Each structure stands twice: as structure tokens, then as C-alpha cells.
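Q: What would this chain look like folded?
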Amino acid sequence: MTEKPTSGGSKDFSLYSTKDQEAMKSLVVCFGEMLIDFVPSVSGVSLAEASVFEKAPGGAPANVAVGISRLGGSSAFIGKVGDDQFGYMLADILKENKVNNSGMRFDHKARTALAFISLKSDGEREFLFFRNPSADMLLQESELDVNLIKQAKIFHFGSISLINEPCKSAHLAAMAIAKKSGSILSYDVNLRLPLWPSEDAAREGIMSVWDQADVIKVSEDEITFLTGVDNPNDDNVVLKKLFHPNLKLFLVSEGSKGCRYYTKKFKGRVPGVKVKPIDTTGAGDAFVSGILSVLVSDINLYEDEKRLREALNFANACGALVVTKKGAIPAMPTKEEVHQILKQD
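A: My prediction, written as C-alpha cells:
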């Protein structure tokens, strides 16, 4: 059995090579849930119709951490899993993918979260979650690896960790530590409505940290949900209802169509990279990995539209590559694969 990762202590930079020090200064820390996805081995069927399921590691923040590492960046994951075989498997997967997992914690009472996901014939995804409660919901503020958070150049999170206590308080405390340490706060909404008590609770919870984020990524459906406006393509809706004074970069993922971007100075759209899709799981997380992997080494990216568009083209290619394979983490691309597809596009 895998040994549990130990809590990370403070780092003495004098003990590391220049390359190691640079990696630490460019660290992206991803906070939130990591779980096991069960996906039908045959696509185009509902969960009820599926007879065989394949297990795959999942959880948006963990996907992003692996994506950044695959692209040659430095990443860490903070979250909680069960003190069970699935929990150790997930810790191992992070380690195999060169993600710092010292911020992971193992709960003795609750199990690692499970999610059953199917892609129906109409292209809609169907979710069934088993977390009542699951270990990720039980991370406590006292269990946070504070030194790891303080090293983050970018601190990335979603909204699922804001649903339940004590994880919500741990999430808010981690954000506060990161903000005070000078980290860029990156927020991918990642709406999973069945996990929230109600639609109103989801909107309130998602918006509760909105004004603190420096970078926000949403989907078109999430714009509609958060604003109540039928047309998510309306720039005025985004600028009036969702863009806030502290925001440096607002991104809207549009699937195969590409993405839109908004900053204080400019806005625009970058077209997607054409591929033949097999499984859309993890595409948004790969896109986020792509843009954060560039932003962490080019911190003023959102002030130069040409550089930003190049970075978003790279991020779109990351998302496109993921849909050509099954699963999220197994499909996360390398930098070489991204450059290869961009040459062909």
C-alpha cells in the first residue's frame, strides 16, 4: 500500500538548485475535490442503460493540476480523499504525474467521492454523485498546508468546495492565505447543480467569492445560470453583470467554437482548434491548465492582447486534444502535442 504523503513544511530555497527555485516561484496550487469518475464503456447511453463502467480519476482542480504538470509546469493539489484504496490510488496518480500531493489529507470516517457520468446520445452529460458526505467535503482549516499555499504564484479553485462545511471554511481560509501572500486567484465556476441544495444556494455560493478572483473562467451555460439572461453571447451582459473592478481576466469557454476573453482594456474571441471528438470530459480543465501554464510565467499576460490571444490559442488546443481521447487525466496533453496540433491547424 502507498504511504500517505506527509504534510509539507516550509521550503529553504538555499537547499535547491536555481531550476528548482524557479519552479517553486512558478507554482500553481489547485484546491478542491478529487474523486473517482465511473464512465460507461459504451458512449451514447444513459446511466440506467449502461452495463459496464470504467473507473477514471476525476475532479476539476486535480485535473488542472495534472494538466499543468503535463505541460511542463509546476503544480500542487490540496484536498481530501478517503483513507481507502481509491484515495491512495488518487494520491499515486498525482505523484506519477509529478504533481506535489503533500497537501492531500486522508479521512478515516468518510470515503473517497464517486461520480457516475454518462454522455447520452444527445450529447448531454448525466451525473450521479455519491458523497454523503464524502471525504473531500470534510477538509478542515486546521488541515491546510499553509506553507504550500504561501508558495503559490497562482491559487486555483472551483465552486464545489464552497458547498459544504467544514470544507467551505477551509476554502475561504486558503484563499485568504493565498491572497495575502500575493498569489493570483483563479476561479473556474464548474457548476454541478445536483450537488447544491437549490439553484438559489448555488448562485449565492458561487458569487460569494466572485469579487476576490483575479481570473475567472465560465461556460456559456454558467453565464445564463448566473445572470438569468437567455443570450450568453451578449458582451454587455458579461461586462455589466459579471465583470468586477478587481478582475484582470474573464474567460468564457465555448467548447469547439473556442473562447471569449475580457480584460479592462480589450475583449475578443479566439476560435477553437478543429478535432474529431470522442469524449468531452476534462476539456474545460485542459483549457484552464493551458492558460494558467502560460500566465504563471508571464504574469502580465492580460495587458498584451497579442500575447493573450496566442496563449488562448494554446489553451484551446489543450482542450481540443483532450476530447480526442477518453477520460480527463489520461488525456491531458504535453506541450509537444499541443505545438504539433497547432502546426497542423
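The first strand starts at residue 27 and ends at 31.
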